[in-house]
Design goal:
The chain is an alpha/beta fold. It folds into two domains: about 210 residues, Spore Coat Polysaccharide Biosynthesis Protein SpsA, Chain A (Alpha-Beta Complex), CATH 3.90.550.10; about 120 residues. Helices cover about 55% and strands about 10% of the residues. It contains twelve helices and seven strands. A seven-stranded mixed β-sheet has the order 3-2-1-4-6-5-7, with helices on both faces. Strand 1, helix 1 and strand 2 form a beta-alpha-beta unit. Helix 11 packs antiparallel against helix 12. It is elongated, with a radius of gyration of 25 Å.
């Protein structure tokens, strides 16, 4: 009669959560778990794979392993992209005493984790960073001389902004006490690839940093996700921190794209009139549509690269954007006319109209077109 199940066994949170941001890393999940298992003997740990809905089924693979091994967890984000924001959300899903961040492509050396942990346990540091540029480390695994030059330039650039002297601030391999991460989380920008730079620049007082050497391995499976957008986001991160988050960088990007749109408009207008012989009214209409479509595409890739619309949502977004900008143009012309009629100089009236137009376009497209999730 008594079929009561056995009392549940309570298991405390592990000492260490290893956060693994991953996008299209299916082939690397199982080998990475095996390596962590081998490296972290005697330490209670878990791995949290944070996947942005990779088409290659990375999340499924992590879940498959997690079914048989409770140390392996997976956070699947839908409609989002971004290494830094993935790390933040993974770390905030942890209850461990310490959190480590490691790439999901095995380029970082997991065998250094116990040494990193030891430095935090003794309280010798607030952050321990895996460095390729202290004795015993190297960055030979970077894919080619271009990536190497880029990395060195990034390190020099970051060095100008950072309070602590660090040999490898661009490292994506580090460990911090979770409570410290929790405290800093609300201040993080979460943009782009460089979450460590974000953390260091977000701390109200300089953090005590220690470095541990490691050799950056070359990638065996999958491919790097570093592209021009990631570089632009890095510049954005440094600027954002420099101005204490007061300068609305997304708006600046949006306005910059708008300026490019003006050039696209003028070029199309010239082409339509000179080369195709269209009369002004038609040429102007064609140029307007071409410029708006170009603006949409640039904003989708750049300004809103972290929530880029694709597939069906892309077409719906484009239609809405054309509608929003069409209304913005009407507001622009209306205001400029009104001011001009009230004897404002034509340049001031025109500029006021343009400013109202771009603010309208930005505000409305941010809420309707790229509304995040
Ligand atoms: N969830 C998620 N979302 N993960 C991502 C995304 C994303 O949008 N983009 C990249 N990742 C994951 C990758 O799958 C990989 O596990 C890790 O982040 C690093 O991305 P890579 O594309 O392999 O970057 P990398 O090798 O060019 O650059 C790395 O090396 C630097 C050292 O030069 C980065 O990890 C840096 O942080 C690291 O310091
Ligand atoms: Mn990599």
């Amino acid at each position: 009669m008594d079929t009561a199940s056995p009392a549940p066994v309570l298991t405390a949170a592990p000492e260490l959560s290893v956060i693994v941001p991953c996008y299209n890393e299916r082939a690397n999940v199982a080998p990475l778990v095996a390596r962590l298992d081998a490296a972290l003997v005697g330490i209670t740990w878990e791995a949290i794979f944070v996947d942005d809905d990779s088409p290659d089924g990375t999340a499924e693979e992590a879940r498959r392993i997690g079914t048989g091994d409770a140390r392996v967890r997976c956070l699947r984000r839908v409609g989002r992209r971004g290494l830094a924001s993935a790390v933040i959300e993974g770390a905030l899903a942890s209850s461990a005493r310490f959190v480590a961040v490691i790439d999901g492509d095995m380029q970082h050396d997991e065998t250094r984790l116990p040494a990193m942990l030891e430095l935090l346990r003794t309280g010798a540091a607030d952050v321990v960073v895996g460095s390729r540029h202290v004795a015993g480390g190297d960055d030979a695994g970077l894919a080619g001389p271009f990536r190497q030059r880029l990395s060195h330039a990034g390190i020099r650039l970051a060095g100008r902004f950072l309070p602590a002297a660090l040999t490898d601030p661009m490292s994506g391999f580090f460990m911090v006490p979770r409570p410290l991460f929790e405290r800093l989380a609300p201040r993080l920008t979460g943009q782009g690839f460089k979450i460590l730079v974000d953390l260091l620049l977000s701390a109200p007082a300089p953090l005590r940093v220690r470095e541990v050497a490691y050799q950056f391995r070359s990638r065996e499976a999958g491919e790097s996700k570093l592209d021009a957008l990631v570089l632009a986001q890095f510049a954005g991160l440094l600027l954002d921190k420099q101005f204490h988050g007061l300068v609305p960088l997304r708006f600046i990007a949006f306005a910059g794209v708008g300026l490019i749109g003006v050039l696209v408009h003028l070029a199309t207008l010239t082409l339509a009139r000179e080369a195709m012989g269209l009369h002004f009214g038609l040429a102007q209409s064609v140029a307007t549509v071409v410029a708006m479509v170009a603006n949409f595409e640039l904003n989708n890739r750049l300004t809103y690269g972290d929530q880029r619309l694709r597939g069906e949502r892309l077409w719906r977004g484009l239609l809405l954007f054309l509608l929003v900008c069409g209304l913005g143009a009407i507001a622009n012309i209306g205001i400029a006319r009104m001011l001009y009629a009230e004897n404002t100089t034509w340049s001031l009236a025109g500029a006021a109209g343009a400013v109202v137009g771009v603010v309208w376009n930005y505000a409305v497209s941010a809420t309707l077109v790229w509304r995040g999730r």
